[in-house]
Predict the 3D structure of the following.
Amino acid sequence: MRRVAVITAGADAPGMNAAIRSVARRSFELGYDVLMVKDGFEGLVRGDVEIMNKKMVSGILPLGGSILGSSRVGAEYAVQNLAKIRDALTRNNITTSVIIGDRSAVAVAEVFDANGFPCVVIPNTIDNDIFGTDFSIGFDSAITTISDALDKLHTTASAHHRVMIVEVMGRQSGWLALYGGLAGGADFIAIPEQPVPIETLAAHLKQRKEEGKDFSIVVVAEGYPTGTHEPGPAGRPVAGYGLAEALSSLTSLSTRVTVLGYLQRGGSPTVFDRLLATRLGFAAIDAVREGKSGILVGETSQHIAYTGLREVMTQPHTVPAEVIMQAKTFY
Ligand code: F6P
């Protein structure tokens, strides 16, 4: 009898619940027991595990966040708590763990795999920085939030003839800034993959003004190296303010900063993320049925793909160069 544990780990993102629902429904269809682990790996270490029934996943498809709760821990935490993890898995007769999460979750899954704890990972992060899948669950929802925010910021930037600098998330990747900025019609997109001298940005904005464009929207990824600012509260990056400060020393343009922050992690998942989550949840249980373990299930070129966890952790998932090039047409 297969008993599948469902764990949501690392940063939450819209679509997590859709994935939980799909994992559970496919498992029930195959006659597997499903156990829900509360609060990610911290909950597993606490032994906070309970049986899941069909009713528990009813109505959760459109919900943001995770009905299970999540936590972000790293591989070291798993190694330090290996005995408690093994105890929780054994006591609950868990045969496989399906882990829905970000890169930190993949790192812990590697520890599971190295210690003989079967696991399958479903990529879920707004950062979209996971190798082995074209898109991670949550990315499309986050760029939709960014695009909507840029639409709203256009009107106030235009009314006051300002440069509105919008800082978005993404850790060290520029996926959110590039795709969200493109969708929202940004006039400049600053991504860590291709940092440019601040003078270039200043010249670009001045030229826009000379051409009669009386406002600009600049999207900057939080990982963009502005070099002028120490990390902000709770160690959060301050790329937006760093860029504004650097620009103020080079131009007389009026600038304001908007940090979208955790709005990008909230809300109901888009249709794309609901469908991606449903497909990957189903694929994860099919991988379990095939006896697979130590893999991430992803979707590449619209086909389900299995990738070994070591490869996922070591291969970068970089922003496509052709998209960077195409974006430059618009700024
Ligand atoms: O990994 C997703 C993410 O939102 C990043 O884009 C962001 O830098 C980070 O999580 C914030 O981490 P926390 O939720 O722990 O503050």
Observations:
- The chain has two domains: 3-138+269-314, 142-266.
